[in-house]
Design brief:
The structure is a homodimer of 414-residue chains. With 414 residues, chain A is α/β, with parallel strands linked by helices. Chain A folds into three domains: 3-170, 3-Layer(aba) Sandwich (Molybdenum Cofactor Biosythetic Enzyme, Chain A); 177-253, 2-Layer Sandwich (Alpha-Beta Plaits), CATH 3.30.70.2860; 258-413, Maf protein (Alpha-Beta Complex). Helix content of chain A is 39%, strand content 25%. In chain A, strands 2-1-3-8-7-6 form a six-stranded mixed β-sheet, with helices on both faces. Chain A has a five-stranded mixed β-sheet with strand order 14-13-15-16-17. In chain A, α3 (46-59) crosses α4 and α9 (258-269) runs parallel beside α14 (393-413). The longest helix of chain A has 21 residues, at 393-413. Chains A and B meet through α2, β2, α3, β9 and α7 of A and α1, α2, β2, α3 and α5 of B. β2 (36-42) of chain A pairs antiparallel with β2 of chain B.
């Protein structure tokens, strides 16, 4: 038994809105253990919608529609379904009464066009909409089960939770669930990690799949089981092995970010951090302070975008700045030490680099970044990165901030 | 001639990621005047992918694929396409060389699995990927034109702009185009703006549609015409009227950001800026430095997350800090003056507030934010905002930084 998601709306084809409904339903179907293999987006066009219904009803048993339930003439999901399956539409007075009541509550009057929303295919049940006016339907017809929802995400989600989930569970779904855990890695290429874990990529239950984006590599472990507890049991040994293979490159799971993980390590050690940022311009501080409670270990820092600020607020030597340049190991080290001593923190982290698109030279290309790391005991280190001149400014800045956090993470783990 | 978007990736079916690629391509196809009626999402499964290729190639002439071009075994878009059309894969040594070069630039070694990415169907052209390793293809086969892109949005978008758009234009697309211009407003509610411009919302060509997200309100003006010049002529008078109605709340169009607009105003005036950030933790600096060339007017700032930093680096009075609290008008003003004088800039902007989820009280609720603005002549002002305790930490921080920029923008326009 497989499901299929069909999102109806010309606004999706024009790109006016992002298809968040498909993502919501995808997550929900997975958690109910209902496999779904296809998602289709189609416009407000009855011929094409019929074609999509035909294809979907031949390959899937549960068809979930979003959109096209409103009162305007281009809302035609319900009538097209009725027409496709050759079933007449029946007017439901209780729906009209419900819509009129809701309009009255908002101090408005129902318009004649709303009557359209009370037309339901013969034999279908009403899927009530407690958050809006347009009800959906639950309809078992010609061997398939059809559920329709309005396109407004808040209404759709509420109807899904209130009515569709209990209904699907009553049909026996939700007995077998899919539970996933995502392991996150930094400082390793996707292909390198995939090769190291290649024998896991053919597992059947749980499955293991690699993903990469913006310098981060993820391994998603998904288990099918009758309960979350059982799924976790299936995942646990695989997770442990993958973590071991990942070694220090593994930094966290699911909602963890490098900033969250570094924050926990600092908190556990009772240590504090400050930052000195040049090319990231505040991005590292922003990442750190995105974590609630970060004030316990993050004191602040200096955005030393201009050289004058590197000198005045961080005490960087003007001589080194002019002889070696702002993008150099020594300046990175002085920035780190400068902020660490001035803010009296355990750690001081600095970033100076060339984010582009201008400012690159043959010896100092775009993407060249130095990260400095100073400790309370006076020790200071720096690391050189070449993130690549073809990369975009925003990505170079993102990689710089994440890599700086990763250096501190690895150091704190030692 | 119609196009169809096919996004390949089990992560989309599991809901692990949001399908932003489909939206990007939808907008792009509209702007080229290429109708597209269907979007399909399918997992990393060759049988089902073949079924999707079959359906799509029977109803559309241009098939645009995203995802499944990576080096791992579950990346199988290219080989499945070759298999479906019965064409052998040819190894392209120049792709291998290019991948090896890119890995070397990043100080890494190419792995054997990357060789897979050099296999291209016979007769297909390489669609180069300047931002990543996985190239795509442009392939005219069996009456359809196929374009493939990696799933990573930044790479896909760059390849689309650099190669796919010129290619599609060479095929004669983009003759009747849809050209859009988006006007951006800050400091006005969507409903208020929509009411003021209500008589524009029923226009046919150009159309005007309002959108709102994260405090920003947009009006998109879209015209259909045979040329961009003609479309611009249709848009110009409507744009002029909408700008006038928006007044000072209108700040820019299309790719403009508040940071870009503020930067231009500062550059024109020959003035400079520094920032002192508490609850935004560097986010304002990051916004400002996201703009290439921002070093001409943005010198840097202080992330004074902890009170000690407000005192040591900004000269805030300890007495005021403890009596009035860090989140107060007076402290905001001292932070602004402190950074403006210490960094010797024309303007100093400060932000101090309670971003939540903890730290709110009855008198100082979550969402309370003070913005300070100091000038070189010694004048200083502050502004109180209550962004609402129900809002998320990240949104409160975003609204704070944008509102700070908007205050400076309005001041610079006076």
């Amino acid at each position: 038994m497989t499901a299929e998601i069909i999102c109806v709306g010309t606004e999706l084809l024009l790109g006016s809105i992002l298809n968040k409904n498909a993502q919501f339903l995808a997550i929900e179907l997975a958690s109910l253990g209902i496999p779904h293999y296809y998602q289709t987006v189609v416009g407000d066009n009855p011929q094409r919608l019929k074609q999509v219904i035909k294809i979907a009803s031949e390959r899937s048993q549960v068809l979930i529609f979003t959109g096209g339930l409103g009162p305007t003439p281009d809302d035609l999901t319900t009538e097209t379904l009725a027409e496709f399956f050759g079933v007449p539409l029946i007017e439901h007075p209780e729906i009209i009464a419900d819509i009129a009541r809701k309009y009255a509550q908002r101090g408005r009057e129902m318009t004649p066009s709303n009557r359209k929303q009370a037309l339901i295919p013969q034999g279908a049940e009403v899927l009530p909409n407690s958050a809006g006016t347009a009800p959906g339907i639950i309809w078992r017809v010609a061997g398939v089960t059809i559920l329709t929802f309005p396109g407004v995400p808040s209404e759709m989600q509420r109807m899904w939770q209130e009515t569709a989930v209990p209904y699907l569970k009553s049909l026996g779904f939700g007995k077998e669930i899919i539970y996933s855990r995502t392991l996150k890695f930094w400082g390793i290429a996707e292909s390198a990690l995939a090769e190291r874990v290649s024998n896991f990529l053919n597992l059947q239950n749980p499955t293991v799949a690699p993903y990469a984006s913006q310098g981060e590599v993820k391994l998603r472990i998904s288990a099918k089981a009758e309960s979350e507890a059982e799924a976790k049991q299936l995942i646990a040994p695989v997770e442990a092995e993958l973590k071991q293979i990942g070694g220090l490159a593994y930094y966290g799971a699911d909602d963890d970010t490098l900033a969250i993980v570094v924050g926990k390590l600092l908190l556990d050690a009772g240590e504090t951090l400050s930052v000195a940022e040049s090319c990231t311009g505040g991005g590292l501080g922003q990442m750190l302070t995105a974590v609630p409670g970060s004030s316990s270990y993050f004191l602040g820092g200096v955005i030393s975008y201009d050289n004058s600020v590197k000198i005045s607020l961080l005490g960087v030597e003007p001589k080194d700045l002019y002889e070696l340049g702002a993008v150099s190991a020594k300046v990175a080290e002085q920035m780190a030490t400068g902020v660490q001593t001035r803010l009296a923190t355990t750690w001081g982290i600095s970033i100076t680099g060339i984010a582009g698109p201008d400012g690159g030279t043959a010896t100092k290309p775009i993407g060249l970044v130095y990260i400095g790391m100073a400790e309370a005991n006076g020790e200071v280190q720096s690391f050189e990165y070449r993130f690549g001149a073809m990369r975009e400014r925003s990505l170079i800045r993102h990689l710089s901030a994440c890599t700086a956090l990763d250096h501190l993470r690895r150091k704190l783990l030692q």
